[in-house]
Amino acid sequence: MPQIRRLLRHLSLILIAWLAIGPGVALAQKAPPPPPPAATAAAPAAADKQQNSLADGYVLGVGDVVEVSVLGREEFKSRVQVQVDGTIQLPYIKSIPAEGKTVLQLREEVRRRLQQGGFYTDPVVSVIVASYTARYVTVLGEVGTPGLVPVDRAYRLSEIIARVGGLRPTAADDIQVRRASGQEYSFEMNEIASGGPDKDIFVEPGDKIFVATAPTYYIYGQIAQPGSYRIDRGMSLRKAIARSGGLTPRGSEKKIKLFRDGKEVNHMDLSDMVKNGDTIVIGERFF
Q: Which residue has the higher pLDDT, 193 or 164?
């Protein structure tokens, strides 16, 4: 009997322990596993890829300076200029043609030669144009800052005009473009600003852009504001007088004289168009 009591007591203790611990174990087994840590999105590399996207299509020429390097390889990093013979000098692969190649083409050529020469297994080559010298347009005439404008990408005519500070108040409405081939084009500024792509063409390296001085007329006598004025397109004699402030109280429309090329125009009408260099004299009427 004592042994049976001890056995029963032992079984009771096991049962109590199981009742205390078992449900917790079951709950632990049924509990869903903790969610995996949220995946961290890789930082976008768009900015790096776009850093030189505008220059990737640039065609290299003599005098341009490029920086050529291999990612993670400090021994291969050069800043070189395209020589007169159209080549650049680089470590290991020495002379390589560059003139006439785009940045992308030169990048692939350098990569291919490094692989073929056994210098690197899979090099990541970077080519950056450090100085644009070979490709430019010339802008002259009535613009803010005439001079040479490098073209590191495809620029429209309006962009080039903006880069040189726009047109001066004394500028004519027409903008002349002369290609290196000899072709000539003429565009009105209003059409460039408001027209389609055919009115706002892409410039080409070697283009010469010229903005002439606007035509002017001179007026004095019995006029409110005598002086020299710009001639707008389609300006008549009547409009020219109005632009100059109109006649004074003593001015007379019957006493208007127009001088052109040093000679007086005999048969004149207020609807006649004003031409560059015209001189208008307003006479005094008699009471």
A: 164
Instruction: Say whether 21 sits in a helix, a strand or coil.
Output: helix
Give the separation between CA 277 and CA 267, rounded to whole angstroms: 18
> CA-CA distance, 178 to 201, in Å (whole number)?
12
Query: Is pTM, for the whole model, over 0.90?
Result: no
Question: Tokens 């030169």 correspond to what residue?
Answer: 106
Please state, in angstroms and rounded to a whole number, the distance separating the CA atoms of residues 141 and 175: 10
Q: In this structure, what are the phi and psi dihedrals at residue 81, rounded to the nearest 5 degrees?
A: -110, 145
Quick one: CA dihedral 219, 223, 229, 233, positive or negative?
Answer: negative
Residue-wise pLDDT for 44-83, tens only, equals 333 334 334 445 677 888 889 999 999 999 999 999 999 9
Question: Nearest 10 degrees: CA dihedral of 9, 12, 14, 17?
Answer: -130
Give the pair of three-digit tokens for residue 119: 């210098």
